[in-house]
RNA sequence: GACCCCGUAGCUCAGCAGGAUAGAGCAACAGAUUCCUAAUCUGUAGGUCACAGGUUCGAAUCCUGUCGGGGUCGCCA
């Protein structure tokens, strides 16, 4: 249960009742009146701005509304203190017993704690990675993969019906290039000296493997044939090999896509033609000449009539080409068909996770989704900014030309998928991120992965010791849920409890905002509160978790430790990181 | 030239749907270790939230403009 929702509905009920009794004008809009934790804990446990937001529509003074509401709130069972502060905030202090009983619920729920019905089973598709099948995933792909995956888990936790999807760009010029490059490597595998790789083909060594596999399967049957004979077959072969690597890499990262959808299949099924016909029928296409981009050299520019989509009618800055000069559809046209396909499959809510270099593409895609779904579809695009790879403070040199880029697999091999996943969520997605191979594996306060894992391991350590000391007592969450917690009275203990109980709210707000990084930051807060409490016990031994000859207090504290461990595990589960039970240098 | 993202403490960054005295970590300074893992913790100091207007009872947050950094800009995907 989200404790804030609990008080929110109580507040809403009071407002309704005040409305119907005439104390407040009827039909007043109270949607902006919210219950939230105050920034400063000294102001109380929860606060509401209700009096301030209602003052204007009600035509009353905030103070008067506050007085009226406060009077009602004083009657609430859980509340011990109500005060009006500042411009009209109502601050509530909640009885410790309320928090303690909520901790019992937490323990009963276990790792499922924090799950919410907010999404009401609404279908949402998260499309991410979608790297072109031209080579193995490189380090930069990791960020989008992790942000997308964590976001998908987060939405699932918040009660949405989530589909994870990868869009394979297996149509178009790039995969033709892969096919030709593979053909060259195939000839090489059959003993031919191919010299240097010509301009315009992929030089990467990784295609050797594909060429060899092809030679093994087909022998010399493609030698001396015309390109139009071998290209479709070899292209398909290469794509399937490369997609095999990509799926393997995603597996190592813990990413499990439900659907891999093919651009080529979509095109061949006529989906693009169909959409374009529809747009044509709605008079949203026309032939025109685009202005040259002003910052670019006009050398290679010549005005050329093209088939354009009226993106400006849906919020874009210019109309966008949907047809190349050779008459084939642009990538944009295919993408429109793909997004309509998502919508038709029941996903009116779509989230795409893209790299920052696609920023200029967002407006037109949103415009297209609006146009093609009649305003019913909603597309949110999460742009992931660049990742700067560093090693001990120095940038890692990478060159795509020289083929010396760092693959995602290199990174996983070097630091492990858990570290990679966590670090990728320690920044907002639209902020550039520095990834330092040395720092992320350091065992220090500076390293958030370690810090959170250490807190989890400490919980585990305490429980392990306790189990020995108490001769194998049952310290599971369900057992500890029935323990009396009245002896937990220290502010640090209550503070930790309240923080743990904010987990469901964190899930909901992060899901609402589509911001999985908030989970990582929240876990850092939980870890800090726990480490703090731990050290308090170092200074004041009466605060230690295991108290000799006071089993009631010990059990209460163990329940809190178990609750902490549970919430950390639950949070790590959302971001796809394995909690560790032990840390050794 | 246009569009998108960013600009918060010396450094790296949070800041939840506009809320009260803007928060962490690092670095600096002062402390805590016969003890459940000190790989940690406590405290001090550090701010014109780039700048200027606007909306509002209230703005780091929303709007407009300016400056600075990054990304992108027809026939690549």
What would you note in describing this structure?
Helices cover about 50% and strands about 10% of the residues. The protein is α/β, with parallel strands linked by helices and about 575 residues long. It is globular. It has helices at about 5-20, 50-60, 60-75, 95-110, 140-155, 175-190, 205-220, 225-255, 265-270, 270-280, 330-345, 360-370, 410-415, 415-425, 450-470, 475-480, 490-500, 505-515, 515-540, 550-575; strands at about 35, 45-50, 80-85, 90-95, 125, 160-170, 260, 285-290, 305-310, 320, 350-355, 380-385, 385-390, 395, 435. The protein has a 5-stranded parallel sheet with strand order 7-6-5-11-12, with helices on both faces. It has a 4-stranded antiparallel sheet with strand order 1-2-4-3. Helix 5 links the parallel strand 5 (about 125) and strand 6. The longest helix is centred in the middle third of the chain and has 27 residues, at about 225-255. The protein has 20 helices and 15 strands. Helix 17 (about 490-500) packs parallel to helix 20 (about 550-575). The protein binds one RNA strand of 77 nucleotides through helix 2, helix 6, strand 10, helix 11 and helix 15.
Based on Cα principal axes, name the global outline.
globular
Mean pLDDT over the residues: 91
Radius of gyration over all CA atoms, rounded: 29 Å
Please state how the strands of the largest beta sheet are arranged side by side: 7-6-5-11-12
The count of strands amounts to 15
What about the largest sheet? Answer: 5 strands, parallel
Class inferred from helices and paired strands: alpha/beta
Number of helices: 20
Determine the fraction of residues in helical runs and give it as a percent range. 40-55%
Uncertain segments are: none
Q: What portion of the residues fall into strands of 2 or more residues?
A: 5-15%
Distance between the termini: 39 Å
